[in-house]
Write a structure and sequence with these properties.
TIM Barrel, alpha/beta, about 35% helix, eight-stranded parallel sheet
Length: about 425
């Protein structure tokens, strides 16, 4: 049985006796570029600079060589342009402040401020203000808030929809080529077409736009979900309309090749609680999620992927009711996110994609033995009955010890009945 077949079975809650594995298929299940380089060296793979496939979080490419070494079962397809509106093409070398030479897109144009922080500009256009900053001691970018003064009487919904347009023929050609590149794959496939992230706080600042209008300040956006609910409803209504139009066209070229689709990365949880009440979720978000998910389930075989960090156990039933099939990252170290209880209560209706090992304490700071113990325990909890894709709790961060990653991989191999490294 190949990886694609295993993935299909686990999406349908069929027990395979194995943990299906993902590293790098989505922007929330990836590995920092520095760690990718160190893993390549550990496995003795070809010596080459690593592509930064998602520069906001500085995630590295998991190419075919590394996929094989890690036992990856799933590959992902993403949009032509990155979070900064820069096309992922014409790759060139760039040396980062931590000393690593990486590959970035040709238009990845940066400047440096007076404090030595790295600044990135939307679409690589140096004539406009930067949209994100990487502090000189950091390993990833933070959005720069470019909120213009808000005139309540002149707020226009179209301003918060600038980045959400109908798919073009050029976009469709790009996606057709991407899908053709994996048409013969034996691995599972998840696709991130984009445009369906309702209120995703990582997208609100619009780091890809040169002069963003509307509500772009993170705090202002959260306040708007309470103070400007009519405005937010109007954004979501139009965005959903555009999304379904685009999904209709994507379906024509993707067909059944795509097995899962990344819908939304909007976080509803903190470490100890939720960002909003269940009532707010049901009133403000759920109607639009439901429209998107219902269209997908009616017209395709795709499973729908919802990312939400934090203590979201109170929302699990709501996610299911809104039509989501998959929940990620399954933050097992957050309040109320007990793996045994999650599996018992929701395991026949939700696919748990993540939750394989804690990335706040155990993976970066624990011992290899502690890592192995937790990976084996989580696999034993989540794998029975299907509905589990192994990944860490969110992306693997820079400077995670290689020996701990090897312990994680060996634990997966051991669980799946394979030879350890």
């Amino acid at each position: 049985m190949n990886s694609r077949e295993l993935f299909n079975l686990t999406l349908n809650h069929r027990d395979t006796g194995k943990a299906v594995i993902d590293f790098g298929a989505t922007p929330v299940t990836g590995i920092h570029v520095l760690v990718v380089e160190r893993l390549r060296k550990y496995f003795g793979l070809s010596d080459k600079p690593v592509k930064v496939v998602e520069p906001y979080q500085m995630l590295g490419e998991i190419d075919a060589e590394l996929q094989q070494a890690l036992g990856v079962d799933i590959i992902g397809l993403s949009a032509r342009c990155n979070m900064f509106g820069i096309p992922n093409e014409n790759w060139r070398e760039m040396k980062m402040h931590w000393g690593q030479v990486v590959l970035v897109p040709g238009s990845f144009n940066t400047t440096t401020d007076n404090e030595g922080n790295l600044l990135i500009h939307p679409e690589g256009d140096l004539s406009v203000p930067p949209s994100a900053r990487m502090p000189r001691t950091s390993y990833f970018f933070d959005a720069i808030i470019r909120q213009e003064p808000i005139d309540e009487e002149k707020l226009d919904v179209s301003q918060n929809l600038e980045e959400f347009g109908q798919v073009t023929d050029s976009d469709l050609l790009y996606w057709k080529n991407q899908l053709n590149s994996v048409k013969d794959t034996e691995k599972g496939v998840i696709v991130n077409f984009g445009g369906t992230g309702l209120g995703d706080i990582a997208l609100v600042p619009a780091m890809n736009l040169k002069h963003p209008k509307g509500i772009r300040d993170v705090a202002e956006w959260y306040m708007s979900t309470v103070m400007r609910t009519d405005y937010v409803h109007a954004i979501f209504e139009k965005q959903t309309e555009i999304a379904i139009h685009n999904l209709t066209r994507y379906k024509e070229i993707a067909g059944d090749l795509a097995q899962a689709i990344f819908i939304c990365g909007t976080d509803f949880g903190t470490q100890d609680s939720t960002f909003c009440s269940p009532e707010t979720f049901n009133e403000l978000y759920a109607p639009y999620y439901r429209k998107i998910n219902n269209w997908i389930h009616k017209n395709t075989r795709w499973s729908t992927f919802k990312h939400s960090c934090g203590a979201v156990e109170p929302f699990m039933e709501l996610f299911i009711d809104a039509g989501f099939d998959i929940i990620n990252p399954v933050q097992i170290n957050a309040t109320g996110m007990n793996p045994v209880k999650l599996k018992e209560k929701y395991g026949d209706r939700l696919v748990f994609w993540g939750g394989g090992v804690d990335t706040q304490k155990i993976l970066p700071f624990g011992t290899p033995a502690e890592v192995e113990d937790q990976v084996l325990r989580e696999c034993e909890i989540f794998t029975p009955g299907g509905g589990f894709v192994f990944n860490t709790v969110h992306n693997i961060q820079a400077n995670t010890p290689v020996e701990n990653l090897v312990a994680m991989i060996n634990a997966l191999r051991k669980f799946n009945g394979e030879k350890t490294i």
